[in-house]
Structure formats: C-alpha cells, structure tokens
Amino acid sequence: MVxxxxxxxxxxxxxxxxxxxxxxxxxxxxxxxxxxxxDLDGQKEFMELHRGHVLEELLVDRxxxxxxxxxxxxSRVTYMEASNGxxxxxxxxxKEGYDRPAFYELIxxxxxxxxxxxxxxxxxxxxxxxxLNGSFPLPAExxxxxxxxxxxxxxxxxxxxxxxxxxxxxxxxxxxxxxxxIRASRWKNVLRRCENNFKGSELELIxxxxxxxxxxxxxxxxxxxxxxxxxxxxxxxxx
Length: 239
Hints:
By secondary structure, the protein is α+β, with helices and mostly antiparallel strands. The protein is built from five helices and ten strands. A hairpin with a 4-residue loop joins strand 4 (75-83) and strand 5 (88-96). It is elongated, with a radius of gyration of 25 Å.
C-alpha cells in the first residue's frame, strides 16, 4: 500500500509518491525497490505538469483506510485520509484491474464507518455441526432450535451496544467486516432460551459445543458488517 502522496497545493491534485526521487528530484530513496513502469511514468508526468508549483508530501493514515473489497481484488475503491502535518485530506483511490494503474483524487469530507448489521455465521455453523457428526449427536430439528436461540439472542442486542457486548473483535476479509465474540453472559441467555426445547443431556451437549467453539476467531463469532459514508466537509477541507 502507498504510504506517501505528493499534493500540488496550487491545483489540489495528488499522486502516489513511489520514492523514485528524494526531495522531488534527487537520487532514488529506496534502491532495490521496483515500481511498475506506468506508475513511474505517471509520477514523472505529474512532476513535469506541476513544475514550479508548490508541492507537498502527504502521509497516509493507515488506520483510516477502508475498502469494500479484499486487498487482493483487482478492482476496488478505497478511501483513506492523509495529512501534511497541519491539514487532513480525504483521498479516493480507484483501481479498475490488474493491468490498469490506480487513480487517486482529493475529495471533500471525512470518512465515516458505521455498523449496519450484526449476524451469526449460520451457514458455516451448520456445516461445522454437520462435520462433527457423531460427536454432536443432535437431530437436525434440535440443531435448528439451538441456532434459532443463538440468532434471537443476537437480535436482542441493541445496535448502540454491539461493540460493548464483544469480548474481542478481529478484522474480517475486508475493512468493512469485523468478527466479534460475545460475552459469557450472552451465552448463558442462549442456554436459557434452549431450556424448553432440550433435555438435560442435550443441553450439556450444547453447552460443551459453545465452550469448545466460542474462542475468538472461531465459528461462533458474530459477523459485523459496516458501511462507508462521507461526511460534509468542514470549512478547512479543500474543495
């Protein structure tokens, strides 16, 4: 991922800094690092086009980088914030394929990432129980009752309390997906929801399954999906 950008303060345009030059025109800063010819040609063209303009370096804040697709996807849109030490800028990066160079532009506003849904990994959970076979000897109907109790308990969590209810969260396959393991008190509630539909020995099986699979990064993690929005720009945000 590009960590530095060059911004023309006069034209308010940006391009990644590929460390081809030191102080915008000196010897290579990273010997041994190779960039694609299109990238280097684009940077040379930018430097020529903005010759005599005020140029500054922007440092990308990696914590603000969000995309709706995994990093290995050839086509995706990514947003990030970068700073010159005094102002922060919102950058939009568009990549349309492996053989296409990425395009960067400054846009007004700030990134806002909000949780929009909290769900269990139902399909994966059913497959895991099916794979256990004899070590989890419950009929399909009872398995469905357990999943239903789990789903209902998750739905009972108020959206504003989602993060507080998580013992731990882990990053997902994209920056808009997070996985979280719920607190022990929520699992006690799940077991209580199961009491009317399960015998004592069946409840013990459910309790053991929960105990064996509720560690962070396991199948009982909840999937938290997020959305990206761009807030209205402040007075200091460049047009």
